[in-house]
């Protein structure tokens, strides 16, 4: 992982869906445990969660699921998001991070986290305070490695420089969004990661579900689908997200993925995941299955060798405008 000795599997099990009992939005603990065990049984090691996922239930479920197999797992979690309305219940301050880590360790049922990540940039806290706090976690043995999530290129540089100035532990990883429909990180973020020694564990490799083959121009999204739920929401922000996921460009790319999958006799999901896995600078790809069947379907993408003919077509149709900056959480314009 980046410029470090940490070894992770090429596929990372994301656990944001662990906790709800509604299988439309997530999975209950029994199914989540089956997913974790099947993932580990296939030889994969990297599991990612966060203190904010399903109100902390995700960490609790993951902790119970890996009990007895903890040494086989590279366990990652994150902190930054609000855990209340108070000013010290969010962010990257020493006070909040110390409380957050102790709470995560309790929920996970472990005495250490292998990769502890800042879940966002905090412009209200001097980053020197953040890096010295995180360095203390490493020195105490409660954390092994440090990472970032959803940072811009400039913020990555500032984070590494702050660690260097303070003589603190550097960061070794970044979690940005990356897929055939969201390639903006290629302009600045991936080059900065390479220059500053960070490996990339990318999220939303299926473009919010657009690249699974479920969506097209001929029919409206099913009401129970992720995008269908967003479109049916009473919140304007949710409908805006759906509009950003489904547009002429993303649907053109999705159609090309479906075409490539038909030619290769595999699923669109496998094609989309294989494309992300093979991109320069990508260390690991985070998947978020809600069922055991989805896990097995996702893992097919990591066994697929994408032929040059299909890869070249996907490269052409999804290419982004050169130089477009991106913070790793939003799409940028097409070429």
List the topology elements:
Blueprint: E1 11-14, H1 29-41, E2 46-48, H2 57-65, E3 74-79, H3 94-108, E4 113-118, H4 127-140, E5 143-149, H5 153-166, E6 173-175, H6 189-196, E7 199-202, H7 226-231, H8 236-245, H9 248-264, H10 268-277, E8 282-287, H11 292-299, H12 308-318
Parallel strand pairs: 1-2, 1-8, 2-3, 3-4, 4-5, 5-6, 6-7, 7-8
Helix pairs in contact: 1-2, 2-3, 4-5, 5-6, 9-10, 9-12
- Strand order across the largest sheet: 1-2-3-4-5-6-7-8
Sheet with the most strands, sense and barrel status: 8 strands, parallel, barrel
Instruction: Give the strand content.
Output: 5-15%
Rounded mean pLDDT is 90
Task: Using the alpha-carbon principal axes, give the shape.
Answer: globular
Low-confidence region ranges: 331-335
CATH structural fold name of the domain at 11-175: TIM Barrel
């Amino acid at each position: 992982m980046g410029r470090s000795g940490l070894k992770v599997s090429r596929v990372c099990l994301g656990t944001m869906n662990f906790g709800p009992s509604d299988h439309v939005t997530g999975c209950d603990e029994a199914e989540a445990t089956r997913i974790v065990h099947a993932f580990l049984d296939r030889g994969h090691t990297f599991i990612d969660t966060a203190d904010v996922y399903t109100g902390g239930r995700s960490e609790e479920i993951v902790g119970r699921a890996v009990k007895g197999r903890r040494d086989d797992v590279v366990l990652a979690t994150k902190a930054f998001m609000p855990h209340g309305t108070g000013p010290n219940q969010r962010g990257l301050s020493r006070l909040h991070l110390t409380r957050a880590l102790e709470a995560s360790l309790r929920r996970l049922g472990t005495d250490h986290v292998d990769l502890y990540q800042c879940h966002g940039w905090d412009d209200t806290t001097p980053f020197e305070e953040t890096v010295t706090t995180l360095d203390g976690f490493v020195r105490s043995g409660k954390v092994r490695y440090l990472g970032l999530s959803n940072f811009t290129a400039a913020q990555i540089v500032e984070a590494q420089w702050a660690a260097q100035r303070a003589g603190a532990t550097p960061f070794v990883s970044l979690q940005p969004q990356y897929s055939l429909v969201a390639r903006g990180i290629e302009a600045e973020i991936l080059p900065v990661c390479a220059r500053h020694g960070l490996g990339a564990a990318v999220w939303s490799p299926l473009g919010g579900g657009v690249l699974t083959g479920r969506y097209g121009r001929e029919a409206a999204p099913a009401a129970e689908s992720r995008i269908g739920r967003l479109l049916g929401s009473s919140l304007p922000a949710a409908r805006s997200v759906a509009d950003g996921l489904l547009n002429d460009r993303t649907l053109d790319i999705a159609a090309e993925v479906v075409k490539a999958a038909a030619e290769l006799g595999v699923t669109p999901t496998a094609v989309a995941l294989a494309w992300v896995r093979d991109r320069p600078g990508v260390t690991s790809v985070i998947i978020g299955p809600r069922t055991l069947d989805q896990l097995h379907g996702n893992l097919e993408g990591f066994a697929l060798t994408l032929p040059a003919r299909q890869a070249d077509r996907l490269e052409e149709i999804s290419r982004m405008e050169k130089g477009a900056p991106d913070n790793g959480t939003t799409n940028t314009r097409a070429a």
